[in-house]
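User: For documentation purposes, I need each entry recorded in a consistent format: the amino acid sequence on its own, followed directly by the corresponding structure tokens. There are two entries in this batch. Please keep commentary to a minimum and don't merge the entries.

Assistant: Recorded as requested. Entry 1:
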Amino acid sequence: MVQHLAHELRQPLSAIENIAYYLRITANQRDERTLEQIEKLQRLVEHANWILDDAIHYLQAAAPQPVLVDVNELITRACGDESLAGAREARLLLADGLPLVSLDPAQGEHLSRSLVAFANKAGGPFCNLEIATGLSSDMVTLWAAFNACGLPKSDPRPLLEPFAAHLPGGSGLALASTRRIAEAHGGSVTVEMIHEGRLQVVVALPAAKDGCARNVSDPATHILAQPR
């Protein structure tokens, strides 16, 4: 049912996307206001498609088909797909020589994108965002820490529940789908407040017994955005 509904909704969204593309190439390129509105329309269509994907992954409309996946590659792509220009400073730290994890590729992509998108939105403008990978015992970890602007500081666990209050507008199911995917692969997602009003989200996935990720050529911090 969910997949059918998503398919039906994507047809008009695709038509709107095509119209927006046509408007962009035919519009007066000097009319900045019109171009900004067209770009906004394209972003809204992209976001609507993401929310549909979020619902499908949360409801597990498709059974997982796990393969060995490199978490460093997953999170690097997610950071590249999500615009982090609004962050005051964004840093990505990739641990060297991590074990691979057994993860459905499509669900893994959604998990990493959801984590980055949620941290970027929830942190608000001009936040300091840190994203990192690591290894804790036999679990590969992927975590994000950011300023908890407007989020519940006493008990952030409701952020793991669908349609929780205090979620940033347009967040979809955000951390709820992230947790559902992690748990379906034997992992977990935890949220906690750390020092100075910062929220930390940690995704833990079982390390595969066989296979190791490629060594990171430069395990130092990657600067994704920096103070202007």
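Entry 2:
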Amino acid sequence: MPAFFLVATTLALVTGTSIASLEAVVSASPQHVERDLQTYTSSDNFQAQMLAAVNAERAKVGLVAFCTNKKLQASAQLHSNDQARNNFMSHTGSDGSSMSQRITAQSFVWSSIAENVAAGQVDVTAVMKAWMNSSGHKANILGNYKFFGTGYAYNANSNYKHYWTQDFGTGSSEACDSSGTVQSTTAPTVTPTPTTATPTMTPKATTATPAVQQTTTPTPTTKTPISTGQTMQQQMLAAVNAERAKVGLAAYCTNKKLQTSAQLHSEDQAKNNFMSHTGSNGSTMSQRITAQSFVWSSIAENVAAGQVDVAAVVKSWMNSSGHKANILGNYKFFGMGYAYNANSNYKHYWTQDFGTGSSEACE
């Protein structure tokens, strides 16, 4: 049975030393779909339909319209083709490529980029509805970008058949294209017998790439690793719940399984001098959380590096719509991790893990 998957990620300017990234995970109720045939071909100009749908949502809240950029268009289309051909849904390509690597490969010189990915929805209307019902994806669609590209590919012999990508970006040297029509690369197509399917949307974790913000180089507050004991955990939980209280949301509670997952990931990043949702062993957020026996219905993660204390990193996350959406999200359980390596690029490495699960408990 095919399913709907939605994934959003953002990435900002690669200068400075303060880093943040997000991975959004969503779930929704089943939706009935009346057909399972290929919806669009390269001659249907679905790109213009998607651009119009995106700009209609932006207009509702008084935002300026995006314009099509052929480099983002090519990146998005190639990624949808890759997912359809190789029967997967992720921000990480079958060759291990990240969103930023694919966009850079198209010679797009960017200061900030973001990506939405989905699978299973049969047309522009359906996938836009799904994305707009997810705070992380909605944040990208309504984000502070200028250029836009979209991709769609179909493979009747794959799990989800329909594969969607949206790429967003800003870049001072980039330009709008005169037309929303961009020649797409050929996607795998197999004409199936018409069927009726009932896709179900299930949570899907995916890897994401670092989002780097412009900040001055932080001065380490310690020369040795800071204790990862209860005090820092309590500080972070209090800071997060203070932000939730400002908008009338219920407080999170600590869950030791999420705590362990987050701490191990921060230690991995510090030890191996990297910042990503993908662990040094290739693990994803969902794999790490599941490895701690957390039985989840939805999960999310924020990662950052370079900020010297809880106040600084929470401020950084709250200034980013995607990370803010996780902090203010519809979760119950929380865990955080911090690790320090004086010999690494960013020294301070932070992780927040969020989750819901009917069999899980507060500590």
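Summary note for entry 2:
Residues 3-201 form a domain with the Pathogenesis-related Protein p14a fold (CATH 3.40.33.10).
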